[in-house]
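Q: Structure tokens for this one, please.
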Amino acid sequence: MTEPQVLPLVIRDLSFRYNSRGTPAIKNLNLELHPGEVLLLAGSSGCGKTTLMRCINGLIPEAYHGEMTGDILLYGESVRGKTLADISQNVGTLLQDPERQILGTYVLNEVCFGLESLGMERSEMIRRGEEALKRLNILHLRDKETFGTSGGEKQKVALAGVLAMQPKILLLDEPLASLDPASAHEALLAFRQLADEGLAVMIVEHRVEDVLAIHPERVVYMEDGEVTYQGDPAELSQVVDYHKIKLPAQDILARAKDAPETDFVPAVPPLDYSKPLIEFKEVGFRYHEDLPEVLHGINLNIHAGEVIAILGHNGSGKTTLVKHALGLLKPTRGSVLLEGVESKSTTVAKAARTVGYVFQSPTQMLFAPTVRDELAFGPKNLGFDKETIQENVRWAIQSVHLEEELDTPPLALSFGQQKRVSIASVLSMRSRILMMDEPTAGQDYWNYQSFMDTILQMPGFDSIIFITHDLDLALTYANRIIVLFDGRIVADGTPQDVLKDTEQLLQWRLLPTSLLELNFRMFPQTGKFQRAEALARYIG
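A: Here is the predicted structure, written as tokens:
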């Protein structure tokens, strides 16, 4: 008689409550993960997805403390009493924020870090490290310093380090958050291949539509710490609220036709081309005199009334460009002017009175003991009076829907919630120009839309600029799109003009989405790009 198969992962009646919280983050959860399976774990920010991964990989209770009941079995053995090192023999984890996972100075050293801790022979380490880099198409980064890589490149490097360990179970927490569309697609194909080779793969991801494209075997949907759906991915769109997760545009269209949304109108002032807010004049930049240029001859004017989306592949220079506008970086050649004043002759503190900047990684911004203190820090430094500070904090926290977390330590929150706090900390300073680097990374669909709707309808912003890998975000909210490729501006215009050439998009590593295709198909009726919920009014 054949012996029953021992599954890679079995979870029985798992509940967990953080010491800092009154209510459980996970409640009575039961789950199995099979070899050769891709399982998509979806749900709103803060629903317990990341907590579940921490329970599996041993970060709970090693790094995060609380009360846990139930059990987790890895290949038939309970994780209770096992060390992180023990668990890591089977489980590889990619964290949401690559900044917290990267320790090495050079890329290959970082990828081989875990292997070195196992005492592996050097030639084998290098072989496995290079193999992992090649699988993710980043072998060219082999000898690069990690600090000089972009956020998306750091994400790939961190993932390569996980793959080099050759785990049997792969836990991926928002693996696409920092990746350009083409890189995200390549990563997903790699995950699919790993599962086909026998790995058990669990993906936590808000970009549900992207993951569905690789045909996961199962999908689990969570709300408030509980599993509310577990089963066939094909049924997901019929059983979940389309406002909460991003489904294919056609699925949303069918569901929303009886409840069309109202028109969305940004509150930025009318376009004013008379005097640029920010000017780039032949800007070139290199991080070190011995390194090649990252930006090449950038000429760019930003005006009042513009909502600008900056697109481009990982490492194209998007973040570098935006940091010049605030004066965090100074051009190697050329000049940047903020309201007529050259950035080289002013301070970041002075610029911050005009430009608010939200970093890509929230851990680069959050340091205060509570969310309330975090939001009050900037206004205090700008000399606002106590009453104004309190009002700004109240307004900012409401804007990101985290009122109940004001007294919570920021780093105790989920990555998506930390991202919202970092955005609120900038909003509280009431800057006239708002710049955001990947503002919706790690956000569920409801928070993503609600936040962008709120921000763009707030009075007081002359212009809003956001870096994003989300083509749908750009086409829905921006009135101007700028595309960077290898440090040069290769496109600049309206969403309709920039996004119309599919072949060109592919060359820029931008993949057309179901929403983009639907908008072009319906453009003769609509006259503008809109989200799927709004397009429903034109059906039937």
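A few notes: The CA atoms of residues 257 and 536 lie 4 Å apart. Residues 9-256 form a domain with the Rossmann fold fold (CATH 3.40.50.300).
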